[in-house]
Amino acid sequence: MKKRKIALFLVTLLLISILSGCGQQDNQETLQEQKKTIVDMAGKSVEVPEKVEKIAVTCYGGASHEVAILGAGDKIVAQPPMQRFPQLVKMLPGFADVPDVGSFDEVNVEEILKLEPDVVIASVSSEKGNKKIEEAGIPVVTVLTGRADIEGLKKEFKMMGDLLNKEKEAEKLVAFWNERLKLIEDHVSEIPQDERKRVYYVLGDLLHTNGGSFWGHYLITTAGGINVAEEIGKARDISIEQLLEWDPEVMILSSNEGRFIPVEEVKNNPQMADVKAVKDNALHLCPVGTFWWDRPSPEAILGMTWLAKTLYPDKFTDIDLEKDIKDFYKEFYNYELTSDEVKAFLNPTE
């Protein structure tokens, strides 16, 4: 009798376990089947799974970095190669092996389908590529890539938080941006307009820059500088005569387009010998962390802080840049940066 009772008890436990497991599986499947609507950065309403588990990214422009900083990097099953950002791959080693299914309008829909993503994150600029993916039955959520302004980028962070069920993380990131933007504004508001530094942004070619319609303009003006190229608006290329006429006091050099231009190359250019920035040795390489700091991305706020302190070191003595960078990475990436890593950010070589 005793043995029969024990056997009955064990069978009951087994049945409870099986039923409980089935219930958990049913709940998981229900979450996968449930839908929600996201309004993406093109203003389009997109129906996506309530719980997104697999993401394909078909654009550069910081999209993967937004997913990563919100704590969902492990959900990315496809994206453009990230080897050009070794710090990102160091922090998220799985990114080294994530397949590339194309980007922008040049996407491989067959390869995307093989990966069975719940959603594709794509650029607002790649309408043809996005249409192909949507026609294959996969929801496409668009982001601004290089077309963002500051308010648009913060809105994008929140949209990503909604998509990934990471609303608290997104709110925390936006709060940091707001606090830091206020701090910078409080400092630079004390500088008279006629004492603001006149800045020229070199973008992979000495005569390629950003007019007033692009992120480089927001970077410079947020940091308290004057973008000498603002007047060209949506244009991006100028003549050497125009650059000499502007005679900028400061030049910042980026390689996020074109090629890496060393400071020495500008210094040794005979055409630039009389430019004030060259004579004053006010030539600075834009930092690169997990992404270019002069491009819209979660850590672009560090680029604004760096430039403000570079332009007006006496106004920003309260900011220890190395500590600031380390604190940001610890808070948002949960990663302990070394001093050597910070030094590499501030002194890019490619």
List the helices and strands and how they pair.
Elements: H1 2-33, E1 35-39, E2 45-49, E3 55-57, H2 63-69, E4 76-78, H3 86-91, E5 102-103, E6 106-107, H4 109-115, E7 119-123, H5 127-135, E8 140-143, H6 150-164, H7 167-188, E9 198-203, H8 215-222, E10 226-227, H9 240-246, E11 250-254, H10 263-267, H11 276-279, E12 283-285, H12 300-311, H13 321-333, H14 339-346
Parallel strand pairs: 3-4, 3-7, 7-8, 9-10, 9-11, 11-12
Antiparallel strand pairs: 1-2, 5-6
Folded structure, characterized:
The structure is a single chain. The chain has 350 residues and is of the alpha/beta class. The chain folds into 2 domains: 38-166, Nitrogenase molybdenum iron protein domain (Rossmann fold), CATH 3.40.50.1980; 181-346, Nitrogenase molybdenum iron protein domain (Rossmann fold), CATH 3.40.50.1980. The protein is built from 14 helices and 12 strands. The protein has helices spanning 2-33, 63-69, 86-91, 109-115, 127-135, 150-164, 167-188, 215-222, 240-246, 263-267, 276-279, 300-311, 321-333, 339-346, and strands spanning 35-39, 45-49, 55-57, 76-78, 102-103, 106-107, 119-123, 140-143, 198-203, 226-227, 250-254, 283-285. The strands form 4 sheets. Strands 4-3-7-8 form a 4-stranded parallel beta sheet, sandwiched between helices. Strands 10-9-11-12 form a 4-stranded parallel beta sheet. A two-stranded antiparallel ribbon has the order 1-2. It is globular. Residues 24-28 have low confidence and may be disordered.
Search tags:
globular, 350 residues, 4-stranded parallel β-sheet, single chain, alpha/beta, Rossmann fold
